[in-house]
Amino acid sequence: xxxxxxxxxxxxxxxxxxxxxxxxxxxxxxxxxxxxxxxxxxxxxxxxxxxxxxxxxxxxxxxxxxxxxxxxxxxxxxxxxxxxxxxxxxxxxxxxxxxxxxxxxxxxxxxxxxxxxxxxxxxxxxxxxxxxxxxxxxxxxxxxxxxxxxxxxxxxxxxxxxxxxxxxxxxxxxxxxxxxxxxxxxxxxxxxxxxxxxxxxxxxxxxxxxxxxxxxxxxxxxxxxxxxxxxxxxxxxxxxxxxxxxxxxxxxxxxxxxxxxxxxxxxxxxxxxxxxxxxxxxxxxxxxxxxxxxxxxxxxxxxxxxxxxxxxxxxxxxxxxxxxxxxxxxxxxxxxxxxxxxxxxxxxxxxxxxxxxxxxxxxxxxxxxxxxxxxxxxxxxxxxxxxxxxxxxxxxxxxxxxxxxxxxxxxxxxxxxxxxxxxxxxxxxxxxxxxxxxxxxxxxxxxxxxxxxxxxxxxxxxxxxxxxxxxxxxxxxxxxxxxxxxxxxxxxxxxxxxxxxxxxxxxxxxxxxxxxxxxxxxxxxxxxxxxxxxxxxxxxxxxxxxxxxxxxxxxxxxxxxxxxxxxxxxxxxxxxxxxxxxxxxxxxxxxxxxxxxxxxxxxxxxxxxxxxxxxxxxxxxxxxxxxxxxxxxxxxxxxxxxxxxxxxxxxxxxxxxxxxxxxxxxxxxxxxxxxxxxxxxxxxxxxxxxxxxxxxxxxxxxxxxxxxxxxxxxxxxxxxxxxxxxxxxxxxxxxxxxxxxxxxxxxxxxxxxxxxxxxxxxxxxxxxxxxxxxxxxxxxxxxxxxxxxxxxxxxxxxxxx
Amino acid sequence: xxxxxxxxxxxxxxxxxxxxxxxxxxxxxxxxxxxxxxxxxxxxxxxxxxxxxxxxxxxxxxxxxxxxxxxxxxxxxxxxxxxxxxxxxxxxxxxxxxxxxxxxxxxxxxxxxxxxxxxxxxxxxxxxxxxxxxxxxxxxxxxxxxxxxxxxxxxxxxxxxxxxxxxxxxxxxxxxxxxxxxxxxxxxxxxxxxxxxxxxxxxxxxxxxxxxxxxxxxxxxxx
Lengths: 801, 223
Description:
With 801 residues, chain A is α/β, with parallel strands linked by helices. Chain A is built from 31 helices and 26 strands. The longest helix of chain A has 18 residues, at 74-91. The model of chain A is unreliable at 699-704 (pLDDT under 50). With 223 residues, chain B is α/β, with parallel strands linked by helices. Chain B has one domain (4-219): Purple Acid Phosphatase, chain A, domain 2. Chain B contains five helices and 16 strands. The radius of gyration of chain B is 17 Å and the shape is globular. Chain B starts with a strand and ends with a strand. At the A-B interface, helix 19, helix 27, helix 28 and helix 31 of A face helix 1, helix 2, strand 11, strand 12 and strand 14 of B. Chain A: Residues 235-383 form the Helicase C-terminal domain. Chain A: One of its GO terms (biological process) is DNA repair. Chain A: One of its GO terms (molecular function) is ATP binding.
């Protein structure tokens, strides 16, 4: 290990700082091929990552690129540039630092390729793009270190897979590249280390002092929470009181729509006009940046937000985090709590606010898990093949590729170390010819074999098209919202296309905390005015909808087995006691199904505790099964813990209903055309390069020229059911929106152990489900009948019948 | 019946749920915008290789309609081929299939903007075609019409709100003088009947006839 350069050591002394033990550790391991640092927020993590770089560059000898810094957020890259610039200037080090993201100008990007800085700060997508240029080897030649920030967030996503694939290419362009990962607290550091290191290199894990345990509790509110819903309006006065008592409060929500409603209600009650802002991913970038700036200046007393503030940047002086709604996932809760109090060695303060009675149980379970340091998370499985397909195309852009060498390179990526030659060949064939059973593109292969056995793009124009479509982030179909003005008014944000299509002129909805009135659609932009005279419809924004984690669900089930519940508020404990008297409480390793009549319908509740997405899928699969078994189902509603069905006949044979083989078959049939499956397909087909989001010289009325991905799905399913992309789609359906993997797990754990209880009326545990939003009618009648009724009504209303 | 029968310029016509138009009095079937060879064009221009089954799928549906209606005349209303040389790119199976369909019936290729000339397949090639007071052309003309016009080109589609969910279908767009056909080809997108220029082309009395399992009529300009 090199000693700390005297200039740097002097600077630390002048700042009256000492180098933290973990920063010292990182310096000691500076020559290791890979190191993972796990440290809490505010622990000097970034400095720990960059100290070895500053040390190595201090003598001014190194020429060209030395360190690459990659973070999941563009904003983080520019923030780090600022934070790094200060010490570098003060120490007087001869180091050039630049960032490169989607926002960087084209001339600047070009210059960076010809004359790279010592430290380049970038994102996974920008790095992937860099590796697609023919001159990439020259740019990366002298590269010594790569620092991956917030690696825990990347390791959970396809963006991370893309990053590590790009890195495997970079690694082969330079000698002795060392990797460093910076992570927040995670449940399985070894998995992140495996993700980070070049396979099979070893990777030491440095654990920084995690600091004191957080000060976390439930917010004390006299009024009991409502039985159902997610608004938490009952908590508004207590939350306002907390905001007054603290400098800056972050108020986290699980969905953007909930954040909007809460923000709206908060302002209605905000008699002191406390400065409170809102921040989420569907708001316009300019608006978000304004809130961020105000927050850094300390101008805001509170910010209502979503996962958009989960990561990274040091947001001013936050001294309280409030989580509204069940945390769903303990690991994310802990990471969110870390947003409060960035001073090292001071406990972060956080309050939980359950939005309804069931969430009280989940909040208490989550509090226990935090105290016991038991974090949740599911192993992610092997690297997804759609990302691999995109990577092959990116590599082909940089020049001819040798499949054997590329296969070896890909196997050096932790997530892809187990990829078989056959899988690789499938992906390669897909990139070259489309990989169809019918060989139709021999003349127009995308990749063509050359005499020396390497493969190259047939048409050089393809490189541009591939580069334009790099990335794995899926934009849901959203439409921009603008204030109506003659030459395009102020942009407010985005809403889902599906929601926009349900609006008619005069309808109102919430965005950025204001009620706006829908006036019309102009060139794919939703035009609104501030003339709000109706109760707002709630906008559905894009964004992730989280499901309660497996570990947290299991903890709730274990809690149900206690004799009494001293930790729970009396109202909730009484409720559970009542359920135990009338029926039973769900048990771990068993599946509770209740059946009872209510308002002339027979109801069935399946307490699967499999998370919202899986319970929703279970609803769709079981309603089909119920139809087959003659129970005449009419509809269902799903929560994180159970699915409630109603129909004409009572369930009599629960084992037949829950038969795992039939359920697997149901999934197979589902693959024939369910909307969720088609959405899953579209995402993978876009990543793999079959569907191009961006085209060169896009025509203005491009809509007419492009056609729906559903057509591609139907065509493949009909004529080529074994195609790679359909196999990928099926694989993807095990997680995410469909989440069939958790249904499978639940069925395995409870097979033959069903508690089937028939009752005369609604049970206490089932009752709140009757108040849930999002009831889904079962389309035994099918779309066509609905359509016929609707069109007939419209015709007669228009006098055309 | 799954088709929608309506009177247009004094003639009784059937909008079929497949997106084809049938004229019983003339025993005539009309389809528009088949776009054969679209997948090849994508690949040729350095784009991705789309599933190569669209010609087969389109022909299968066309075959079904011709056979079911036992039509004596078939009019393909332009953009039958995605580019002028696309007919040469059709594989032997597809060419033989088209020849088989043409046997024993009158077959008219109307020129489109993608295929503005004769193709090397049988049938008559025309810029436009007048029959019993109805004019068949690829692109609707802007001026006021004295008699009925049947055209394609715009690939009309419509979106309906069905109790909190939106459903989009290809559709016929029909007013007193103008009938704009939906695209019949498998790999085709659409333009909303409420967007320009369709919005201006169509009168306030225009209706859309949805394709799908049943051809359903619905007014276009409800508000």
